[in-house]
Amino acid sequence: ESFNIGLKFEIAFEVRPRSSSGTLVHGHSVNGEYLNVHVKNGQVTVKVNNGIRDFSTSVTPKQSLCDGRWHRITVIRDSNVVQLDVDSEVNHVVGPLNPKPVDHREPVFVGGVPESLLTPRLAPGKPFTGCIRHFVIDGRPVSFSKAALVSGAVSINSCPAA
Asked: Which of 2, 36, 107, 135 is 20 to 30 A from 146 in CA distance terms?
């Protein structure tokens, strides 16, 4: 449904991709701030705009994400610092401080971005292909059975064998 993309959050989930590129998580505010987590050619990137400008960090796992195993991804934001953990590999970025930060609840999209929100800065626009489980925002498990909108070939609470 929604979460605060503004100042401080932690998102954690596990993925078992069947494709090396696609959007994992996207949150977008009306004033242009956003959070985008995607995989492109096996590299996981988190891209953030905090109202000042875009900043991002990436992790290229030593082990391919498309190996049929589950991989844990965690994104932690604390003000202008964003940390990305992929399995046990970690990277972070320090972005600009926003002197007037806004902390407001915005919808979160898992596995893709609605076409109406796509912009050239948010590559890749293609949806995620694979499975996602154990999705937690700020310590609270997310129930996909309560999703506000489901689009595409989505199966809730099941994942075909690799």
From this structure: 36
Helix/strand/coil for 115: helix
Give the residues across from 74 on adjacent strands.
12, 85
How far apart are the two ends of the chain, measured CA to CA in Å?
A: 29
pLDDT one digit per residue (tens) for the chain, 162 residues: 566 776 788 999 999 999 999 999 988 777 778 889 999 999 999 999 888 888 999 999 998 999 999 999 999 999 889 999 999 999 999 988 876 766 667 778 888 877 776 665 655 568 889 999 999 988 999 887 766 666 556 666 677 765
Tell me how far apart the alpha carbons of residues 59 and 42 are, in angstroms, rounded to a whole number.
9
36 forms bridges with which residues in the sheet? 26, 47
DSSP state of 97: -
